[in-house]
């Protein structure tokens, strides 16, 4: 049986002020794949993730999610159920208790009043506590989020993802702002959770070492185009040298 494609991108073009940021003819990502996006600064990694998350629009081309055009999903609950996003800035509200930030993963499903009520009496508390247990923060549930370290805050963002339980996780530089030990720790948790939940994971990373260690497929971008797209174990030092060399840059 053929494996199911979560993403099928064709003839995509995105420019900013007339300058091409990303152009790709075809890209398919299968359900359950763990894909790392690598490449020099400005190569188009964030642009690609934002297009996949529907937070920006392409100038032309088509994105199919589970065979259905992105445009048919709109910005509603359906897409929220499908995709979760995690960024290096964590996108947490520091003044709120940890539990409220975790339960923000439910906002896409809750109506306005339930969301508002939850700020006073946390709704689905058990679900949030369970998620916090899985990321090792069960003793910080009611603490103010800003009091947590960067690594702990990123774990809160992971617990929020667990509560949201999307089919696909798009992670934009999820560990860039952490020190190397914490970065690896968070990446390990992220990959483990995605594997356990059978989620598709697509993450942009600056560390080639982590890309090779934790991801099965590496897509490299350079100057807005796919430079190579290979199983991790097939990526050679020469591929990487060429990818990051300054000489041939367009
Ligand atoms: N909002 C914007 N307005 C104008 N140009 C933009 C905008 N966002 C991105 N760009 C340009 O598009 C190109 C691709 O940027 P993008 O952020 O996708 O790269 P990246 O690979 O994620 O880089 P980095 O690793 O530094 O985060 C760059 O030339 C960038 O300057």
UniProtKB/TrEMBL annotation:
Pfam families per record: ABC_tran
Give all residue intervals belonging to the ABC transporter domain.
Answer: 7-248
Q: One GO molecular function term?
A: ABC-type phosphonate transporter activity
Kindly list the residue ranges recorded as spanning the membrane: none
What GO cellular component term, any one, is given?
Answer: membrane
CDD domains, per the entry: ABC_PhnC_transporter
What are the UniProt keywords, alphabetically?
ATP-binding, Cell membrane, Membrane, Nucleotide-binding, Translocase, Transport
Q: Which SUPFAM superfamilies match?
A: P-loop containing nucleoside triphosphate hydrolases (SSF52540)
What's the name of the protein? Phosphonates import ATP-binding protein PhnC 1
Q: Origin organism of this chain?
A: Propionigenium maris DSM 9537
């Amino acid at each position: 049986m053929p494996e199911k494609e979560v993403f099928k991108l064709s003839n995509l073009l995105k420019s900013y002020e007339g300058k091409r940021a990303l152009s790709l003819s075809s890209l398919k990502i299968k359900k359950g794949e763990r894909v790392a996006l690598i490449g020099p600064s400005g190569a188009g990694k964030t642009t690609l993730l934002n297009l996949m998350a529907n937070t920006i629009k392409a100038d032309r081309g088509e994105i199919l999610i589970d065979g259905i055009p992105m445009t048919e999903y709109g910005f509603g609950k359906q897409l929220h159920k499908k995709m979760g996003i995690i960024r290096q800035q964590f996108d947490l509200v520091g003044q709120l208790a940890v539990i409220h930030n975790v339960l923000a993963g439910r906002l896409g499903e809750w109506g306005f009043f339930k969301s508002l009520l939850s700020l006073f009496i946390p709704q689905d508390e058990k679900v949030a506590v369970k998620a916090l247990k899985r990321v090792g923060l069960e003793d910080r549930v009611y603490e103010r989020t800003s009091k947590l370290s960067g690594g702990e805050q990123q774990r809160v963002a992971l617990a929020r993802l667990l509560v949201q339980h999307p089919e696909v996780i798009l992670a934009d530089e999820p560990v860039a702002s952490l020190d190397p030990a914490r970065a690896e720790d968070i990446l390990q948790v992220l990959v483990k959770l995605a594997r356990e939940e059978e989620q598709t994971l697509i993450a942009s990373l600056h560390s080639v070492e982590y890309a090779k260690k934790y991801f099965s497929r590496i897509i490299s971008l350079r100057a807005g185009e796919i430079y190579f797209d290979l199983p991790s174990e097939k990526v050679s030092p020469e591929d990487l040298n060429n990818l990051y060399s300054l000489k041939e840059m367009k």
